[in-house]
Amino acid sequence: MESISVGVLLPSSTILPISKDFEKGLKDGLKLSPEINAEIVKEFIGQGSLKQTEEACNKFFNYHDVDIITGIVSSKVMEDLSESFKTRKKSIIINNLGGHIPNVKKINEYIFVNSMHLWQHAFTMGKWGVQTLGKKGMFVSSIYDAGYSFSQMFNMGMTAGDPESKWSFSVTPMPAAGELADISVLFPFIEKYEPDFIFATFCGKETTLFLNEFINRGWHHKIKVTGLPFLTAPFEPLQEHLTVYSTLPVTNKPEYLAEKAFYDLGYTTGVNIAKAALASDGTDLQKQLENLHNMFSVANNSSGDELTIVKYDLPANGSKPAPSIVTSFDTFDKKNQAMQTLHGDMNFGWANPYLCI
């Protein structure tokens, strides 16, 4: 194929400029193959709900008649839209941070997932935490961040690390519209359970609220803090020194910053689309994407994954330092057989991609 039409789904976020970064990365990735003439057609999907995403996809199918669709879409939404792509024999590369575990029972060979799979990171922090920091781990979160697969996988990781580990959790109630979570409700439970370490999954301004209150109450002298890469991205200075353990967005590559994750996702998507288009005769684009073997799909799933655990020594009233690599550590297997065990008949959670609030 010498030319390709790409439909791009762009949601909004108050945390990071995710769509702007993704679009720039996509275009930069496509530019690496100047022999391909790529037309970009954009549709904005608000916070990425099922209704908004489905309406945009229908425009791509029925009006724009694009060759391929990509953008920032949650794996949960794609479960409900998967069959429409197979019916039309159109491929989609969905990009997300991995708030939801891809349900291999509900997606098909036309769905490709380009993601850092944060659900795996939660598993690793649970397993590493009980083997390194202590047997008592606690999940603390706002109601928004708790609506993803992080608590499930953190708990599973703890159990995998030590079947006798002790799990507890505390989640803030839903705040009033336009307001931040009431962080204070978490601390009576932290005091009650006295964990060895917490797994904090806040993002944006609620991160700073929680960590400063954690410091104010003196818990930073008693309890270790772990989290996802976005616990410190974006970062605002804290009142006192705090050490946080986390993971790198990309294994063994500290130069890949969480703040630029959506640019990187867009860039790799652009590169993949161009490579597949160059190899395609116009009728086998799905198969050429599959042949790249570098995105998750029901045909291409991997095992033996490892993640890089890092430490941030955050100075009082200072900027975020470079991470110190602690170790490489195994994570949950992405093979279909293993992943089929992660979804029950009932599967609740936010539909929007993580950080799309």
From TrEMBL:
Gene3D superfamilies: 3.40.50.2300. InterPro entries: Leu-bd, Peripla_BP_I. It comes from the Bacteria. Keywords: Signal. Residues 47-252 form the Leucine-binding protein domain. Pfam families: Peripla_BP_6. Belongs to the leucine-binding protein family. This is ABC transporter substrate-binding protein.
